Amino acid sequence: MAVQATDYFIETQLLNHQKHYVSFNFPSILSPNPKPSPSSSLSDFTYQITSQKPFLDSLLLKSGAVLFRGFPVKTAKDFNDVVEAFGFEEMPYVGGAAPRTNVVGRVFTANESPPDQKIPFHHEMAQVPEFPSKLFFFCEVEPGTGGETPIVLSHIVYEKMKEKYPEFVARLEEHGLIYTRVLGEDDDPSSPIGRGWKSTFLTSDKAVAEERAAKLGMKLEWMGDGVKTIMGPIPAIKYDRSRQRKIWFNSMVAAYTGWEDARNDPVKAVTFGDGQPLPADIIYDCLKILEDECVAIPWKKGDVLLIDNWAVLHSRRPFYPPRRVLASLCK
Fold this sequence. Notes:
alpha+beta, oxidoreductase, eight-stranded mixed β-sheet, AlphaKG_dependent_hydroxylases, 10 helices, globular, TauD-like_sf, four-stranded antiparallel β-sheet, oxidoreductase activity, Double-stranded beta-helix
C-alpha cells in the first residue's frame, strides 16, 4: 500500500527518470503543498518534520530515499536544523575514507575529491563494522554542469548479481571481503580516498589511533609517513531486518575501480576474505548493473536528500564548479 502524503507534504514526480515500483517511487520526492499555502519559514518546515516523523519514517522505509525539494533551506545552519529536527543520533565519521571538513554542528562537506573525479557506488562506510544508518545531503550551491548523485536500491543489485553470478555471490557470502588502504599522515584533497590517518581516527597520537582502529576490527601497519589499514574479513552481503531482504552491502566496486592514488592500487584494495583476488570481469559487470539500475539526482539549490544507508548505494558524477553539497551522518 502506498504511503499517503499529508496536508504539508505532497509527493511529486519531478524527475523524468524516477523509477516506479509496484508500491513506491524511487526516490520519493516531497515538495510543499501549495493548498493551503505552507509557511515559507524554516521553523515551520522543521516543526512539520518533527510532527510528521511517523509519515516520513514510513516513506523512507518504503522507498529507501526521500528528496525534499522546494523547502526554505538556504544555509549550512539551516541544514543542520533540518537534520536535528529528525531526531536521529549523530554518527562520528571515524574510519571513513573521504576527506571532509566540519562546517557547522553535525554538518560536514561531502567528499572533497577533485570535481573531475567520479566517486563510485558505495554504501557509506561499508568497509567498517560501525556505519551510519541514515545519510543526509544538502545542495548549498547548485552545480555548474554535472555533479549528480546517482542512487540505487541495494537489494535489486543483490538479486541481479545472484541471478547472473550465483557462484561468485555464494563465495562472497561465505568469505566476505578484505579491504586494504594506505593512509598518509595528513589529508590529500587530490584523492577521493585521501583522508589521512590523523583525521580518520580523530587523533595525532599513534597509540590512540591503534586503539580506535582495534575497536573497528582494523589492523594497522605503520610504514614511514603513513599506515596500511587492513579491514576484514567483513561481510559483503547483509540482511536488512527492517525490510526482510538481503542487500549488496559492500564497497567492492568502489574499492576495485576507484581507490586509486599515489599510495593505493585499486586492484589490491579489496580481495575475497580468504585473500584470493576478485575477478575483474564480474566487478565491471556489477558496475554496469549499478549504472543501469540507478537514478541520478540532479541537484537544485536547497535540495535535501535523505538516504537509508541500509537500502541504498550512492555515488557522485564529475562536475564543473561551482558545486557545494554538504552531508550529515546518523546512527
